[in-house]
Design a protein that fits this description.
The structure is a homodimer. Chain A is α/β, with parallel strands linked by helices and about 230 residues long. Helices cover about 45% and strands about 10% of the residues of chain A. Chains A, B: Keywords: Hydrolase.
Chain lengths: ~230, ~230
Amino acid sequence: MTAVDVRALVFDVFGTVVDWRGGVAREVRRLLGPSVDAAALADDWRERYVPSMEQVRSGELPWTPLDALHRASLSAVLADAGLASVPAEVRDELVLAWHRLDPWPDVLPGLRRLARSYVLAPLSNGNVALQVDLARRSGLPWDAVLGAEVVRHYKPDPEVYDSAAELLGVPPSSVVMVAAHLDDLAAARARGLRTAYVHRPDEFGGRVVPPSSDPDADLSVASFEELAEALGV
Amino acid sequence: MTAVDVRALVFDVFGTVVDWRGGVAREVRRLLGPSVDAAALADDWRERYVPSMEQVRSGELPWTPLDALHRASLSAVLADAGLASVPAEVRDELVLAWHRLDPWPDVLPGLRRLARSYVLAPLSNGNVALQVDLARRSGLPWDAVLGAEVVRHYKPDPEVYDSAAELLGVPPSSVVMVAAHLDDLAAARARGLRTAYVHRPDEFGGRVVPPSSDPDADLSVASFEELAEALGV
């Protein structure tokens, strides 16, 4: 991958751009109080993420945006934590925890450098309104919001990766998928995108330690600033 | 319409945000030389815009992004101007004229004020890549790029207006459609959006003078700064 071929970078968001675990736990503490194990609740909620999207990917459910999947899986999360009595309006607020996540410290300085030379967009399973809220909260300099809801398919469905190049009007080989997850990058690569792996050792709070690099990616970096450096901006 | 109900503003782009006639004529002069009547060529090209989208809206053509419609209609424009010998690579550059249009002078100061309180997005018939190029060229502070290509329908199809509220996760009545064209606003109103008319007397170079206000709109203004003022930001 030479920097000169690259026209756009598209980003996984949960875990790659923002710290979902810390942010969800913070909102859980705020809304449910200090007696709840907030980190455990965040972990449990996240574990239901892939199975809930799988219901849409398999056709069992019609297209359903991530906010609605989060709202549905929250019922089981709260029930399992002995919190079945949490009222509906607090549940609605808890779903918005996913709109109030903070970026990792290297994200804004890295994106600001990358934005000078490249088109930047999220390519996330989060819905458009969620991405807009995250971006407005932190000043993420996206040029457009791409991803699952635009094509009504969840990653790793090929339609999501294909849409990035198509909507940006460039060849797949000039788009770099940036993610902290090997499976997301493998699916992007299968559709002809370039790939950059970002090591996020704290995503799962140390419970799961991701590999330090992806041997199949064009680039493996430890931060968005290192990514900017590698692309010469 | 009270400002407190408003969550998002979505914008028509050609004529409302950017001066398509001045920008296309400038690029025509640059690429075809001073002997061509650049403004007449821009007008002729624009006149083929609605009929070319109509081929998609009627189902005669499958979904085709605006860049490709512009490329197809350019052949007739050049032939009618006695310029059938213009080579393919110059035609490709001419199509990109629509990506290089400048905003009216009030646009950036108005949008910067509106961005403090409201989610802002284009809701145009122009494709996503075109909107990204326009925004990066001038610094238009969009939070997302919505519009025709995202839903594969051209305005005034109802799907385009419906998608704005749906993708932004808000009720249609909290979204304001901003446009310099009465038909666009009427179609938005029919789908439950609020409407703001912007008077752009120079859009057609004085050949057609638009009305100074739209009696059916919630607001009629002469600039984006006046729109910000009316919404109290």
